[in-house]
Amino acid sequence: MVNLGSNPASAPQSVDPRLEQAPCGFLSVRDDGIIDYVNGTLCQLLGWEQGALHGQNIIAILPMASRIFYQTHVFPMLRMQGAASELYFSLRSRSGDDIPILLNGVRQQRHDEPINDCVVIPIRQRMQYEDQILRAKKLAEAATGGQKLAEATLMQQYERAIALSQITQHIRESLELPQIFAVAAQEIRQGLEADRVGIFRFTQANEGADEAVGGGFVSEAVAPGVDAVMATPVPHYGFGNHYLSVRAQGGSLAIRNLQDPDEMPPLAAIASLFSQFQVRATLVVPLHKGLDLWGLIVIHHCQGPRYWQGGEVELVEDIAVQLAIAIQQADLVKQLQVELLERQRAEARLTEINRELQQATGLLEQLAHIDPLTKIANRRRFNDRLDEEWSRLSRDRLPLSLLLFDIDHFKPYNDTYGHQQGDNCLYAIAQAAQEVVGRPTDLLARYGGETFAVLLPNTNRQGAIAVAQHIHQAIAARAIPHRASTVSAQITLSLGLSTLTPRREQSSAVLIQQADQALCRAKQQGRNGIVTFAPDWLGQEQPPSS
């Protein structure tokens, strides 16, 4: 017995030397898969040094198929049933070889924590027992009949275990129930030399019922020359009714001669069904899903009566246990697939919602920075860009120019032509100026009312004057009538501009104040002109181009 310390991750404090020298392997595994103890025999079998596996995850000694089997069969049986018996799968040695083994395990409490103790016997070691049994049989030829019967029973158990191991291995090669049923039916038919083996499933509405039910074969394997039940239009549910009529309380049903009135229930419809498919003897083993009767393994012998041996019945019952596990596993896989599909749909929908939200957010952000009347940047966007460019150009030590311009005598224009026409005028002015401001870094914005602003990063005074002249020319080219103006018979502009090289210790408001002062001076000088701010207030008016 392994005496483990209070810390489950630490090595055992004391180990029974007899366990270290045991002829079979011994393995203790925690619920989280961490190996708590491996005896010397198993270490030697797997090619590991003594103590090297302690603290490792059990997947270190499991090939991929055995990892799945451990998670879906071995560990659940230990956890739910407290024990696991005669389980066949493989361990992987340190050199990468797969070693078939037989495992028996029991779940115990050690230091108030669950631990799974497992005895591991290599299949090849079990196979060596066959020669020992044969030698013992020769030496005991004169022994009693009871001894011979015991040897025969042991041999049957061994052969059944080998057969079960092979069939179980084939069953576990797939997670698809139709393929699992097909493999199981074929393996049972060949192993028992039966004429027909079918996997019968009760209809969902009647699972577990003890009366006439619906259902039929979902898989079938037949010998050459034997009719397949699934290939005929005859309903199959009679096989289920037959079982329930004889075994209402459950359990296996073995009938060696269906023509014997003592073995066959007096049901004419069922007798006719057996006669149609030439069934002379039958073995039926129930398939359970949890506590419910899911279906049956139905075996037919058509050549004559047959005595079903106990070992044969036990073998099919063992296979039924493996199929029951596969059924539960398939349900779990199906449930996980449904949940995964729902999750993928939810994620796809969430992605679509996020995309729509991003589009809506982007649109809102765009709308938040656009003047709804003129369709150019608004005052908020202008302020943000001014701060950005002021910070950037202060680092790069490059100039920043600002134009402010007003529509001359715009209030009289509104009074004369109406506010709707005034809105149209503002829009036309904005679009005409936008055509002039062509660089991606430049920004035209409605500053307020009939006042517009043009932000020109990395533009010196001469460049800003050129842009102002082009805007002035573009508005003049539009020739928008304005009979209420005292300056001209058409719409004109007054423009003020200022250029600074931003400094971090200076506020961007200085640039706005200077451009505004220049705009005021342009109005004072008779409007329809361009004035550049100068510190000495000697700004020079730039005559508009014709």
Main features:
alpha+beta, disordered C terminus, 546 residues, disordered N terminus, 5-stranded antiparallel sheet
Round the Cα radius of gyration to an integer and report it: 46 Å
Multimer state: single chain
Q: Could you say which overall geometry the principal axes of the C-alpha atoms support?
A: elongated
Question: Which segments are poorly predicted (pLDDT under 50) over 5 or more consecutive residues?
Answer: 1-11, 205-212, 538-546
**Helix fraction by DSSP (H/I, runs of at least 4):** 40-55%
In total, the number of strands is 18
Q: Give the biggest beta sheet.
A: 6 strands, mixed
**What integer is the average pLDDT?**
84
Straight-line N-to-C gap: 109 Å
What class do helices, strands and sheet pairing give? alpha+beta
Spatial strand sequence of the major β-sheet: 14-15-13-16-17-18
Output the number of helix runs.
14
Q: How much strand content do the residues show?
A: 15-25%
Task: Lay out the secondary structure.
Blueprint lengths: L1 E2 L10 E2 L1 H4 L4 E5 L5 E4 L1 H7 L17 H18 L1 E10 L5 E13 L2 E10 H17 L5 H27 L5 H16 L3 E7 L12 E8 L14 H10 L6 E3 L12 H9 L4 E9 L2 E10 L8 H59 L10 H18 L3 E8 L2 H8 L1 H18 L6 E6 L2 E7 L3 H18 L14 E8 L8 H16 L5 E3 L8 E2 L4
Parallel strand pairs: 16-17
Antiparallel strand pairs: 1-2, 3-4, 3-7, 5-6, 6-7, 8-9, 8-12, 10-11, 11-12, 13-15, 13-16, 14-15, 17-18
